[in-house]
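Morning!

This is the sequence you dropped in the shared folder:
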Amino acid sequence: MDSYRQSVERFAKDGATIIGLDRRTRYKSIGPESPRPLEPGYIPIDKPPRLCAVSFYPNASDLSSNEYDAARASFEAWGRSGALEDYERAYMDWIETLPQVPFHRDFNVPIFLELGIEITEFAWLPLVKCPLPARTSVDEDDIFKDRFLLWDQLLLLKPKVILAQGLQAYDVVRAMCEDKFPHRVVLQKIGRIGTKQYHEGEEQRVISDLRSALAAEL
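The structure's back. Tokens below.
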């Protein structure tokens, strides 16, 4: 088994442990609000990602589709076993669902298309592992707890390029990873307000910064 395959197997096992954590007792401020088990995130199954996106927390919104139902079922199977084959199934079902996810459509797709990044070429890791409704406020103590989970995942993956989606994710990741392994961190501001011109300018800045980071010899 090659080294990346071993990393995926470790990610699968550790991810199942994260899924099994009790959100109601783990979090002081947000546990009772979460309708679903914790989410470890996903990494590609065949080769290391070109880019690792770190968002603040998973959105708890449900989707009405067969793909989403299949993804939830395989996610639960992964959580029960931690087996590599169950993670692979969960990953493929997640990939099938992603085009229906508003956050992915609005913040990932325009950038990935411009840079030629395929949907299977990025990893997604949430900083806070607890699924929450949009715009939920998270206590600093609860963020601190999940920093250790994220650090273990980043150290396993050692991504060369990290896209921090939002200022909170950026501040944590930049401080956490500084001088630990060769990488570049790019901030993507996740703005829900502002003019169309502002959002287009931000998108182009992120594309430019990512293009530079992806081309750099790290």
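Headline: The chain has one domain: 3-215.

More detail when I'm at my desk.
O.
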